Amino acid sequence: MRRMRGDKEEGERLNGGDSLVKLLRLVASLMIFVGGVVIGLASSSHVTRYFTSQADIFYTNRGSGSGGYSYYTSEENCSVIQMIVSCPKEDCWSMESFLGPKNLTHGMSDKELLWRASLVPYQQGYPYPRVPKVAFMFLTRGPLPMLPLWEKFFKGHEKLFSIYVHAPSGFKLNVTNSSVFLNRVIPSKAVQWGLSTLTDAEKRLLANALLDFSNEQFILLSESCIPIYNFPTVYKYLINSAHSFVESYDDPSRYGRGRYSRSMFPDIKLKHWRKGSQWFEMNRAVAIYVISDTKYYNIFRKYCRPSCYPDEHYIPTFLNMFHGSLNANRSITWVDWSLGGPHPALHGASNITEGFMQSIRNNGTCSYNSEKTSICHLFARKFAPSALEPLLNISSKVMRF
Ligand SMILES: *[C@@H]1O[C@H](CO)[C@@H](O)[C@H](O)[C@H]1NC(C)=O
Ligand SMILES: *[C@@H]1O[C@H](CO)[C@@H](O)[C@H](O)[C@H]1NC(C)=O
Ligand SMILES: *[C@@H]1O[C@H](CO)[C@@H](O)[C@H](O)[C@H]1NC(C)=O
Ligand SMILES: *[C@@H]1O[C@H](CO)[C@@H](O)[C@H](O)[C@H]1NC(C)=O
Ligand SMILES: *[C@@H]1O[C@H](CO)[C@@H](O)[C@H](O)[C@H]1NC(C)=O
Ligand SMILES: *[C@@H]1O[C@H](CO)[C@@H](O)[C@H](O)[C@H]1NC(C)=O
Ligand SMILES: *[C@@H]1O[C@H](CO)[C@@H](O)[C@H](O)[C@H]1NC(C)=O
Ligand SMILES: *[C@@H]1O[C@H](CO)[C@@H](O)[C@H](O)[C@H]1NC(C)=O
């Protein structure tokens, strides 16, 4: 993080030069000066003076007994000036950049980011026409081989989704200038699979996505995930759901309860312990609960180490303890464990047929908003890069996109 902040400052110095900074300082001072004048006027009982002599204000403000304002002299200790100078390309105070940062680059530490993302408006409603969006969060170890399929899936629905990519630090996603994935990599850190750095990355994705107040649903995906329904179906299903889709179940075996540590007692009891796939889907309220928790997360960080995997237990257990009624307890990402072993089946080119895709689109029945539905999964894993071509070939016929 610190390195990123350094890079940013370097970039500005190279681009802007000293004169730009000076100019901005001048503009900032002017703005603050005008602000001071307005405040001075408002709090002064002699508002009429403005009309008699404008010049008066410049000289009487400081000593006029209305507070002794000196905005135009104290540049050094005015943090507002610092903030304006540090992001010269946009108005930092605009509603637009507050509601949804356009540029995902930032210099916040995880601690600062999670705190900021946890802020919730107290007032009901929004001061702008809010169209809820779905945040697609890709947690990847490298390139996204299914990217062309996703681009086809997203095409034409630009106002209804946001994309976030967590990639190895320094990784550059190779996309065209018109891609919806362009500049969507968040400030990322190294991830060790199975350790808490993985759940840290999940929280980092959630927090970055929460900074956009229009994001309402949050789905975690990997590089081997694909969509199996078209965007309008996915959007409607998620936005209208009364529940989040975080798999959470009690596994009495050594792969479930066996991973519980007695050191977690009494804060987390064995009866609370749950297991579930890391590939979650959650709404805004649940996402804020998850990123705001530090107490239980610290217990997991301390006592859930291999062969306990925080990504399979932390969120399922935490939601079960406090927010169970908000959860459907099932995953919307289809996966095939039928082959046995520690890894699910990987599907390559030879496995992709219309019949196979239809079978995972309608793979039994499940409960949705307390009613039965044949749509249980919206996404599927795991698919090898070789599956891309045949998937693109049948997507319009089978998946309708
Ligand atoms: C602001 O800075 C000026 C001089 O730079 C100093 O005299 C003044 O006390 C400072 N005010 C505050 C509130 O720190
Ligand atoms: C985002 O901001 C960073 C640092 O302020 C800058 O280097 C980068 O070019 C910006 N990206 C875009 C797409 O504007
Ligand atoms: C980036 O993608 C283009 C087109 O898909 C490809 O031609 C190029 O080799 C890729 N570059 C890298 C560095 O992978
Ligand atoms: C993509 O954008 C970069 C930087 O803005 C530019 O240098 C490059 O020519 C663009 N490429 C295409 C194919 O438009
Ligand atoms: C999910 O499990 C919780 C207990 O953790 C339960 O309260 C809730 O009703 C379940 N959700 C559904 C949709 O059955
Ligand atoms: C995929 O196809 C290969 C070769 O046809 C086959 O060996 C494998 O079992 C298939 N995988 C699945 C999950 O069906
Ligand atoms: C679900 O999908 C799997 C894998 O294609 C298949 O073996 C199974 O029969 C399907 N179940 C239903 C109820 O369609
Ligand atoms: C695409 O599908 C058609 C028939 O549906 C088939 O004839 C063709 O070989 C397929 N192409 C690829 C690249 O899979």
Short synopsis of the structure:
This is Glycosyl transferase, family 14. With 401 residues, this protein is α/β, with parallel strands linked by helices. The protein has helices at 2-43, 48-52, 54-60, 79-86, 95-99, 110-117, 147-154, 196-210, 231-239, 284-292, 295-303, 310-322, 354-361, 388-399, and strands at 133-139, 161-166, 215-221, 226-227, 281-283, 333-334, 366-368, 371-373, 379-380.
Structural write-up:
The protein has 401 residues and is α/β, with parallel strands linked by helices. It has two domains: 2-93, no CATH class; 110-121 and 129-399, Spore Coat Polysaccharide Biosynthesis Protein SpsA, Chain A (Alpha-Beta Complex). 39% of the residues lie in helices and 9% in strands. The protein contains 14 helices and nine strands. The protein has helices at residues 2-43, 48-52, 54-60, 79-86, 95-99, 110-117, 147-154, 196-210, 231-239, 284-292, 295-303, 310-322, 354-361, 388-399; strands at 133-139, 161-166, 215-221, 226-227, 281-283, 333-334, 366-368, 371-373, 379-380. The strands form three sheets. The chain has a four-stranded mixed sheet. Helix 7 (147-154) links the parallel strand 1 and strand 2. Helix 1 (2-43) crosses helix 4 and helix 6 (110-117) packs across helix 8 (196-210). The protein starts with a helix and ends with a helix. The model is unreliable at 1-21 and 40-85 (pLDDT under 50). It binds 2-acetamido-2-deoxy-beta-D-glucopyranose (8 copies). One 2-acetamido-2-deoxy-beta-D-glucopyranose binds at residues 336, 345, 347, 350-351.
